[in-house]
Amino acid sequence: MQDPLKMSAVRAWQFCISALFFASSWALPFMNTSIPGPFSGYQVFEVHVNETSALGPLLRSLETAYPIDIWGRPSKQSFDVMVSPEQLSDVIKFIKNKDASYNVKVQDVQRLLDEHMDHLEHHRERRSLPVSSVTRRYLKFRQIRQFLQNVRENATNADVTLSNLGRSFEGRMTPYVTIRKKNSQQENKQVVVIEAGIHAREWIAPSMALNIIYRLAFNPNNDPDLDELLTKFDWIIIPTVNPDGYVYSHRNSSTRLWRKTRTTLYSSDPHCMGVDGNRNFGYEWSDSPSHGGNSNPCTDNYSGPQGFSEPETRNLKTLLTRLGGRVALYLSLHSYGQFFLYPWGYDATATLNDESDMMEVGRKFADAMWERNRWYEVGSASQVLYEAAGAADDYARGGAGIKYAFTVELSPTDSSPHGFLLPAHHISTVVNDHWPAFKQIALTVWNKLNQTRNNNNNNNNNSNNNNNHYTDDSSPASAASSSNNINRRGSNSADNQVEVSINGFNYSMDPHDPRMSQWIQYYRDFLNYRRQYERYGGKRRARR
Ligand code: 0X9
Ligand code: ZN
What we know:
alpha/beta; globular; disordered N terminus; disordered C terminus; binds N~2~-sulfamoyl-L-arginine; binds zinc ion
């Protein structure tokens, strides 16, 4: 069954109006404490504020006052937080005192965990699983290795090689596959890189990655687009960037919600192990809570002692360095909330000079998802979600020079009670719904890069055909040579006005002004929503 449509008409109005006024500036650094299970009596609250601008301050004060685990930020005016039985009454008072409200989204986290784990246990099998099982179940790490070997040996639709990225802290090899068109002689093709699982508990992300592998390698649905996708790109997919965390999250219900790696180097307290891999990439790295990091090993967003201190992030860096300028598209898969995010995540005041290109790709993704009744929000990670320095997307863009670097926060969304504990029977719907959007953006990126390349070739015949390396003049790396070229919010760039048509209305705007592109997005989303609403006679669109 699919997640229900996200927004009511009232919320759509609120969303639009508040978006217009508050889209510009807020930051939400997470400071969660790693909470050990078991989770009897723990609840998940969906906390609502009246105005978007109130959300960041409330969240910050709440997490400063209590060791709580923020599960997600499913909308501009709400966030999900797990609360222990001891904290319940204090947290409720706290929320009410701050003029906010809440509803209980998960009544008993332990019960949800038990059901989830029982279901997994039920599906545990000794014999090796058929490859098609990735559409129905969350594989354990051992099963993922078997699956990948199986794919390498039996792929019918592509040539597959199986390699290792390097070892994790606990010494596990980190497998990845390279999927190429059958018998292709073409070396150094452009590459799509997809990584998942840096956050251990976000199981739908590795599952999505495995399903993409399955589709590319076997084409189980006779998808006519696959030939083009494999002709245009080689695909490199790393389903579990953090194997130790993934194994730990599969151990039992009290470890199921583990997020970080499993390093023991920075604390002797067993509850304070691990580094948040997505705070450890060495590009504009910061462990400051004001940039979404943390220097306390006991927190869930511990950044590590310095950028690339962890083998898991270094392994990915080595791969990207080796691929050089070949990477056309980089996707970092996470859950949850249904967001399509681009850099920068480290600072909400730093914006990309080519934001309109990123937004265009994002809109393609969101439009394709909308066709499947799923609402995705698109924008820069720091502005749409919260500031978080040291994430893979920022490094891919700023450090590895990949222009099209994105984070996808997959399903579910706020109206689902499951969060990270999305039942396995949702996997196939999530994959079926998302695959068209992934295909769409791969082809969009290919067209955009090759258009640019052709234009450049017309101007300069020396262009290297497979060099996607993006010299980023909005990044601090290149700012070293020119000190003031980060495109800050509020900078005056009013000269380049262009006419833009949004759903049939014409506007004059500066395509590089992030406030305008966000505004357009909200407006388009809202109009789309209204059309759907009207088409169904004021009722929610029926679930499929
Ligand atoms: O906080 C994160 O690392 C990601 N969200 S999650 O809920 N999966 O933990 C978002 C990362 C977005 N990218 C950047 N901040 N650069
Ligand atoms: Zn994540």
